[in-house]
Amino acid sequence: MFFRNIVPWPAFLIALEKHHGAVLGKMEAAELKSTIDLSGDDFISNFEFDVFTRLFYPFKTLIKNWQTLTSAHPGYCAFLTYDEVKKRLEKLTRKPGSYIFRLSCTRPGQWAIGYVAPDGKIYQTIPQNKSLIQALHEGHKEGFYIYPNGREQDINLSKLMDVPQADRVQVTSEQYELYCEMGTTFELCKICDDNEKNIKIEPCGHLLCSKCLGNWQDSDGGGNTCPFCRYEIKGTNRVIIDRFKPTSAEIAKVAERKLIAIAPDIPPRTYVSQTQSLPHESHSIPSVDELPLVPPPLPAKTLAVKEMMNTSQSSASYVNVRELENVATSSDGELSRQRAPSVLAPPLPPRLSILEPPRHEYTNTSNLA
């Protein structure tokens, strides 16, 4: 199955009516076509449908929202410009609270609301991060949007505000196990770690609590972007998270994973008994218990070593060159030695005397005349 980027208007209308369960008359279908078909070529593109859904979301009540805000609302002015809205509201400056709304010419998919302030001045604003229905409903309660196009009777949007129900998010077993291993829960807001998630950001789908979203939008680095992925926020929906109810087997599985994470498997140590012989062990080596407590005596010095020490101490001015003594044992048990001749050391060089500088007799040059 494949999707087309451009769809003929009749095929698009049939699919839209089938999805929302609504049947539009000829006049109403023509008005819908003039709203969606921006190019006027009897074809609906992905871009045109995306602009339409942004203007009249939530998607669940898309057709009903369009009917309420266009043909049934006196404040709707489709394609007026900024100057045309200002010119029309100049006639209503004596009636603060008058307002009209139009499609934004510079920002496709957004609305622009022009109204007369209590001081009689004219302002135009673009609602951010909320639907037009919500913006008009809140502005009516605050006293800014009371008279649509100067008319006394405003359309009550409170019933339409209650139509979109909160989306329910079911926590899966994989999500339950993953967040349990991290020591938290899926339904807890990951920004404040205090409140539960109750807001879903569109279109990225990230979840957080309404308090954190408000603080993020009021901050300097926040604004109209998602605090997690920095994607542009097109809208928000209320959500209710259904907690996961684990079975006893799943609880035991999570506990086992936590235990493995805390204390991983360590191979047991191997101990060798003293009675067991190690490989390549020599039986001639005594054990610790068999060793004597007193250290062994030092070996006696030989006669040749003693004589070498005495000779070197007695004649310090000679250099005695001794060859290795051939020690042999005679038949009667006495030691016989052959010594090398002693060689006199070369004389030391004379000490250098400090040379005195030559003395010169003083000559009187005055007598040499």
UniProtKB/TrEMBL annotation:
<dbReference type="InterPro" id="IPR001841">
    <property type="entry name" value="Znf_RING"/>
</dbReference>
<dbReference type="InterPro" id="IPR036860">
    <property type="entry name" value="SH2_dom_sf"/>
</dbReference>
<dbReference type="InterPro" id="IPR011992">
    <property type="entry name" value="EF-hand-dom_pair"/>
</dbReference>
<dbReference type="InterPro" id="IPR017907">
    <property type="entry name" value="Znf_RING_CS"/>
</dbReference>
<feature type="domain" description="RING-type">
    <location>
        <begin position="189"/>
        <end position="230"/>
    </location>
</feature>
<dbReference type="Pfam" id="PF02761">
    <property type="entry name" value="Cbl_N2"/>
</dbReference>
<feature type="region of interest" description="Disordered">
    <location>
        <begin position="329"/>
        <end position="369"/>
    </location>
</feature>
<dbReference type="GO" id="GO:0005509">
    <property type="term" value="F:calcium ion binding"/>
</dbReference>
<protein>
    <recommendedName>
        <fullName>E3 ubiquitin-protein ligase CBL</fullName>
        <ecNumber>2.3.2.27</ecNumber>
    </recommendedName>
</protein>
<keyword id="KW-0479">Metal-binding</keyword>
<dbReference type="InterPro" id="IPR024159">
    <property type="entry name" value="Cbl_PTB"/>
</dbReference>
<comment type="function">
    <text>E3 ubiquitin-protein ligase which accepts ubiquitin from specific E2 ubiquitin-conjugating enzymes, and transfers it to substrates, generally promoting their degradation by the proteasome.</text>
</comment>
<dbReference type="InterPro" id="IPR013083">
    <property type="entry name" value="Znf_RING/FYVE/PHD"/>
</dbReference>
<keyword id="KW-0106">Calcium</keyword>
<dbReference type="GO" id="GO:0008270">
    <property type="term" value="F:zinc ion binding"/>
</dbReference>
<keyword id="KW-0808">Transferase</keyword>
<comment type="pathway">
    <text>Protein modification; protein ubiquitination.</text>
</comment>
<dbReference type="GO" id="GO:0061630">
    <property type="term" value="F:ubiquitin protein ligase activity"/>
</dbReference>
<dbReference type="InterPro" id="IPR014742">
    <property type="entry name" value="Adaptor_Cbl_SH2-like"/>
</dbReference>
<keyword id="KW-0863">Zinc-finger</keyword>
<keyword id="KW-0833">Ubl conjugation pathway</keyword>
<feature type="domain" description="Cbl-PTB">
    <location>
        <begin position="1"/>
        <end position="159"/>
    </location>
</feature>
<dbReference type="InterPro" id="IPR018247">
    <property type="entry name" value="EF_Hand_1_Ca_BS"/>
</dbReference>
<keyword id="KW-0862">Zinc</keyword>
<dbReference type="Pfam" id="PF13920">
    <property type="entry name" value="zf-C3HC4_3"/>
</dbReference>
<dbReference type="InterPro" id="IPR024162">
    <property type="entry name" value="Adaptor_Cbl"/>
</dbReference>
<dbReference type="GO" id="GO:0001784">
    <property type="term" value="F:phosphotyrosine residue binding"/>
</dbReference>
<dbReference type="GO" id="GO:0023051">
    <property type="term" value="P:regulation of signaling"/>
</dbReference>
<dbReference type="InterPro" id="IPR014741">
    <property type="entry name" value="Adaptor_Cbl_EF_hand-like"/>
</dbReference>
<dbReference type="Pfam" id="PF02762">
    <property type="entry name" value="Cbl_N3"/>
</dbReference>
